[in-house]
Amino acid sequence: MLQRPVVSESPAKHLASEAGELPVHFFAPSALEARLRSFKAHFPGVVTYAVKANPADHVISQLWAGGLDGFDVASPDEISLIQRLCPGAAMHYNNPVRSRAEIKFGIEAGVVSWSVDDMGELEKLISCGVPQASEVAVRFKLPVAGGAYNFGAKFGATEDEATALLRRVAEAGFRPAMTFHVGTQCKEPQAFASYIAAAARIAKEAGVTVGRLNVGGGFPAGRDGQPVDLLPFFTAIDKATEAFETRPILVCEPGRGMVADSFAYAVQVKSVRAGRVYLNDGVYGGLAEFPSMVISLHTVVGHMGEARSATRQPMTVFGPTCDSIDQLPGTLELPVDLSEGDWILFRSMGAYLTGMTTRFNGYGDWHTVTVQSLWP
Ligand SMILES: *Cc1c(COP(=O)(O)O)cnc(C)c1O
Fold it and tell me: Can you tell me the distance from the alpha carbon of 86 to that of 294, in angstroms, rounded to the nearest whole number?
């Protein structure tokens, strides 16, 4: 396994002796290793990883060295990243909207699976010469809630469209497959089961035998500080797949559920005023997901390890830029004696941080520190 040198025992230990300047992204390779092992041991099928969730070299390399089966890539840049770090890895190009230049790039890179949610996009794949040995997975959507926000708003064919697409995929000589995405941070195993039941209906209606069913991502991170037990998800998925006349091979492509709990993110207090806090990072940087996700779990480490009161009060929190929308939604419960130089440590911050940060107003840089454990 590829290991970066361990530079600290835990985030709390590191921050207690750190005067700081930049935010710190703490990475525990042991936690990522455990999460991958759990997916591989218990998911009833092929385990891949959605690169966009965290494309850091050390994450991709560790997953590959740990025996991951392949990657969900969404752009030529992500394809190049996988070719560089994991030569020979299976690539599933599951962004259903691609330019012709992007399709050609994917063909040359040896992409083995493509998703489609629209007849025009499928005809594009055919006319660009995607090889017939390739798998083409029809992506469909349902009006099912369960994720933190609605993924069906952007991609996915309706059941009727999916039926027609699946027939056309088979007719064109590709290996027919199906896929969906229940929505990120999905807490409901039943959402996966509803989608799988629909996939079986669509395949039956189309009269097509589906070789593989890719159940997508959406597996939740542990927002209460501990990884979520994914066994109920895997069991629901396995059981629902019995609805197919011929059982397809299952594939999953977690992003958040694979990496989020292996990281924590620490930002520092620059200034405290009555009811207001100014941090050294905000929504243009590592806290980019705050406006769209509920991220509340945090601990406070006092400046140079000083103790802080257990009594907390709600405070309005601002980022470092001069833009007034650089503010966290709602309020955070913070110690009444919160002071300049204190650190706020957010848990489960491994997904949708790397690659999402901007350098707006000259901010957005951070350190990565490897830790033996993310706790205490
Ligand atoms: C983003 C994405 C994923 C990963 O989603 P998570 O909610 O992070 O697990 C998986 N598949 C596709 C097609 C995606 O776009």
Answer: 34
How far apart CA 264 and CA 300 sit, in angstroms, is 13
Helix (H) or strand (E) holding 93: strand 90-93
Match 């769209």 to its residue by tokens: 292
Task: For ligand 1, pick from 72, 149, 192, 356 the residue to mutate: most ligand atoms within 8 Å of CB.
Answer: 72
Quick check: 236 pLDDT over 80?
yes
Distance (angstroms) between ligand 1 centre and the Cα of 255 equals 5
Q: Among the atoms of ligand 1, which is closest to the Cα of residue 95? A: 13
Q: Which of 54, 237, 253, 352 to mutate to test the pocket of ligand 1 (most atoms within 8 A of CB)?
A: 253
Range of weakest confidence among 46-60, 115-129, 163-177, 217-231: 217-231
> Apex CA 349: angle with CA 347 and CA 352, to 5°?
160
**Residue from 52, 91, 219 whose mutation best tests the ligand 1 pocket (most atoms within 8 A of CB):** 52
Interatomic CA distance for residues 180 and 253, integer angstroms: 10
Q: What is the mean pLDDT of the chain?
A: 94
Report how far residue 9's alpha carbon sits from residue 341's, in angstroms, rounded to the nearest whole number.
Answer: 21
**144-185 pLDDT, tens digit each:** 666 665 666 678 999 999 999 999 999 999 999 999 999 999
pTM comes to 0.95
Cis upstream peptide for 11 (omega within 30°): no
CA angle at 230 for the pair 225 and 233, rounded to the nearest 5° = 135
Residue 18: how many other CB atoms lie within 10 Å: 22
Residue nearest to ligand 1 atom 3, measured at CA:
217
184 in contact with ligand 1, CB cutoff 6 A? yes
Nearest to 346 by CA among 263, 289, 281, 255: 263
The highest-level CATH class for domain 2-27+260-371 is mainly beta
Q: Which two tokens stand for residue 265?
A: 């993110």
Q: Please, are residues 219 and 233 in contact by the beta-carbon 8 Å criterion? A: yes
Q: What is the pLDDT of residue 18?
A: 84
Measured from the CB, is residue 162 less than 6 Å from ligand 1?
no
User: Does domain 32-259 match CATH 3.20.20.10?
Assistant: yes
| Alpha carbon of 248 to ligand 1 centroid (Å) | 20
Annotated domain spans of the chain: 2-27+260-371, 32-259
